[in-house]
Amino acid sequence: MVRWGMVIDLKRCIGCQSCTMACKTKNGTPPGIFYRKVLEKVTGKYPAVHRVYIPSQCMHCEDPPCVKSCPAGVFSKRADGIVLIDSSKCYGARICRMACPYNAISFLDKIPTYYPDKLTPIEEIWYQNHTAGTAEKCDFCADLVDQGLKPACVQACPTEALKFGDLNDPRSEVSQIIKARGGYQLHPELGTNPSVYYVK
Amino acid sequence: MGIDTYRAAAEKLSTYQKNIPDTFEVKFKVQNDWKFWEVMAFYLGGVGAGLYAVSHFLNANTGLIVGFILVVFCKNLAHLLSSSRPTNAFRAFSNPGTSWISRGTYFILFFSIFAALDIASRVGLIHWNGAIPGMLLSSGAVFFAFLVMVYIGFVMTEARIIPLWHSPLLPLIFLVYSVLLGAGLYLILISFEGINYDIGFFRKFVMATIILTFFLNFFHLLVMLHSLKAARHSVAMLTKGQTGLIFIGGALFAGLIVPLGLIGYAQIANITSEIFTIIPGILILLGGFLFESSFMKAGIYNPLIDTD
User: Fold this and answer.
1) I need a labelling partner for A9 at 20 to 30 A (CA). Which of A29, A39, B144, B267 fits?
2) What is the CATH number of domain A4-199?
């Protein structure tokens, strides 16, 4: 059985936020809402200072805390490992945001617009898929994946720092990279077994 | 569009842009998902269920009715007000298998049914053949009141990203606090109804609960001091600044130590004046609210990666 997953090569990531923008464009998220983002951290002391970029998103955990904690059954897990969200069921308990150890769930209090009191034509189309007062998150672009394509962020990454594939297939590129370069997950101690791996 | 429209648009955009660096930065962030109405819902549920349990053991019908109203009407109303889409709130019943909020919704439902029937039979609206049905209803109502008191602690332990809340001690803290709050409200109620039973025993019970609450709080903070960095930040927030003043001065000193002193003095000096029941009762209720609001405020997210 397929288990979709991602490997993020931190050596290749240049923090350009192309994946962030591709995601925003694909999902038409309102201002301030990011399903994925590249976090920045400055480490070390002058003169040996480094800026580190850490792309973060929904980890599509094998044992997702959001699915367990949501009282309304908003989250579901597909057989291929993708954790989906049905915002129409959400009533705004917001426990998912606190249960997720990866801070990957956004909450739309209201739908802000880029210009006051007026939606641009593209916003009118985009915001049909969003409801105020509901939680939202990355779905690994399940619609694209079902068509045999890669998620928008993976397609947009100019340095090919993001790789997408079947974690259960030992011959897939993602499995090979994880094996060869010692891929690691974030917060493995929590037992969520994320489908997103990082390599340095 | 005129120049003012563009200016307004630019100002609005700048408010979003101000938040963007914060979004992309690895740092400790205070939770702002649960605010006033969530605190109210948790608090009113604790007071109501605690009062119901205390009143059951003291056989006080007024307390049972007030406790029932607080849980069934006030707590649920606060939950609805906290919800962003109240018309969808019925969906909270959807996931009792794994979600503590969902389980809590069932606990409140069963509590409402058992407590309504229990109260109805106590005030003579319903008559049963024999004592067993009444006893079963009564025990069922207290059992579900206990679950209403304790489930909030389990809900908060589900918050894995907030180490201050993700602690096995929390259900116990919320249970003991709820009993204390119920006892606090009961102290006020008996002041108006008149003290017609052994107040000495009840005072000892309240004092023991205050001491237990104090030590549980202390122990929890001590454990958190040796936990993750976000937990240590939460402890710092609870002990310093404005939140520290609310927690230490309001929740611990005014809400626990002062009532303990007043009740202890009244017990030793054998004073039965209502002042020594009303004032500690009010302080306990106020302290409980301040405890829950400061505890909610000090919930700090653990960053995705180490901040060092």
Assistant:
1) A29
2) 3.30.70.20
